[in-house]
Each structure stands twice: as structure tokens, then as C-alpha cells.
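From the shared-data thread, chain only:
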Amino acid sequence: MAANTAPIFSLLGDIEWGLSGITAANTAKDGTGTVLNVFTADATNGGFVQRIRFRSAGTNVATVARVFINNGLTNATAANNILWDEITLAATTLSEVSALAVYELPLNYALPPGYKLNVTIGTAVAAGYFVTVIGGKY
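Structure, as C-alpha cells:
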């Protein structure tokens, strides 16, 4: 018997973000330690993630942001996480006359029910980064 041959679309748009932004360094490359959860797929039907956006909250040193897919269980167990992608975030200086750069990673994939996206940064920063995910729930 054939699998589902009809395309699926999100039932509802879903915009999620880390509650407080991220400032603390986490150098673990396995998704363990302190992470910022920025998206959780619907517990029954899963979800779709289109993109993730990083916006500086002010003056920061350069760092790298790492995005992990978590299977919905504790991120303290390395086997529950996979490093999906990373992006360099340049140093920023707060200004009242020019915009700070925004960084985006395209994702464009479905997440199984209960799966999560977690984010870490490689070096501690002063002002922090706001992290937002644009997606949908099935």
C-alpha cells in the first residue's frame, strides 16, 4: 500500500521564540547542557519549521549559534539531540541611527510529534540574542 501521496499543509501558523533570549555560552556540540528551547512541535500531529531568526538585543561580541533537533526527551542525554546547523553571529554595537544585522537559517522541514528545536551559542554575550522560529502546527 502506498504512503500518503497528498501534500500536507499546516493547520495553524506557529511563531515561537525563546522566552528570555540567550546570553550564556555552551560549548557542548551534542545538545546537552543549558539550551534555549525555541520550538516544540504539536504533541499529536507534529509541526513544520520554515526558518529560524537571530536578532541581537544590543552590543555583543561575535559568537556562533548552534541549532539542535531534540526528539522530545531530555536534552541531558546526548543521544536525544542532533546538531542540525550553525551560523556565525558577528559582533554588534547598539546604535540609535542604524539597524543591527538579522541572521536567518532556512529550515523547511517537518518535525515529528513532540520534537523540539534547541539553540546554544559558543561564547557568552552581553546583550543577548532573541531567537524566533516561523513554522506551523499540523
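The longest strand covers residues 47-56.
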